[in-house]
Amino acid sequence: MSEDKAILNDIGKVLGVLVLVAVIISIIAINLVDEDTFSMTALKEKKVLNRIKPLGVVATTIAEAKAASPQLDDATPENLAPMTAEEVYNRACMACHATGAADAPITGDVKVWESRISQGSDVLFEHATKGFKGMPPRGGSPQLSDEEMKAAIDFMVMKSQ
Ligand code: HEC
Asked: Residues of the chain whose pLDDT is less than 70?
């Protein structure tokens, strides 16, 4: 019996020493890995995430959309409003109709416009949007809406009566 006790005692001592060694090793290990290493890893991870982030994100608020696309600042209702008749005319019609280029009837030339105006606004609209002889469809600006075309034609007619 006493021999058993002695063996148990020895095992206990050995276990104690082993636990002590394990504690010492872990303390040394913790001190070897300093904080810098942790923060470096976090920094690297952030950079990687930044590199592989999706190109586009869905903006769910106006603020997000504005941050993603600064031009939106300009997208006020006034700026999105359709052009006025004069703006359409100046941009898309004036080149020919102010100069008579390609034999275009000059805006303000009452005589030349008289017979054209007498055709009625429907015919003028159809000729101006679909094209008619030297007049290209929508004056060569296909992005113009029917409303913008009507406004520009009314503007020209008004100036030529
Ligand atoms: C590339 C030159 C050119 C541009 C740009 C142009 N026009 Fe014309 N337009 C003509 C010519 C040429 C005629 C005369 C066609 C004919 O009767 O021989 C004409 C005729 C017209 C007529 C009279 C059609 C008729 O039945 O008598 C209207 C209306 C008209 N244009 C509207 C417009 C409007 C609106 C714009 C701008 C959106 C525009 N045009 C841009 C060349 C142009």
From this structure: 1, 34-38, 69-80
Whether CATH 1.10.760.10 fits 82-159: yes
Q: Which atom of ligand 1 is nearest to the CA of 101?
A: 2
- List C-alpha distances in Å: 101 to 69, 71, 81, 143, 148: 41, 37, 30, 22, 22
The string of DSSP codes covering 33-101 is S-HHHHHHHHHHHHHHHHHTS-S-----SHHHHHHH-GGGGG--HHHHSPPPHHHHIIIIIHHHHTTTG
Residues 6 or more apart whose Cβ sits within 8 Å of residue 67: 59
Do residues 153 and 124 lie in contact, with contact meaning Cβ atoms separated by under 8 Å?
A: yes
Q: What pLDDT sits at residue 1?
A: 61
pTM: 0.63
The atom of ligand 1 lying closest to the CA of 116 is: 27
136 lines ligand 1 (CB under 6 A): yes
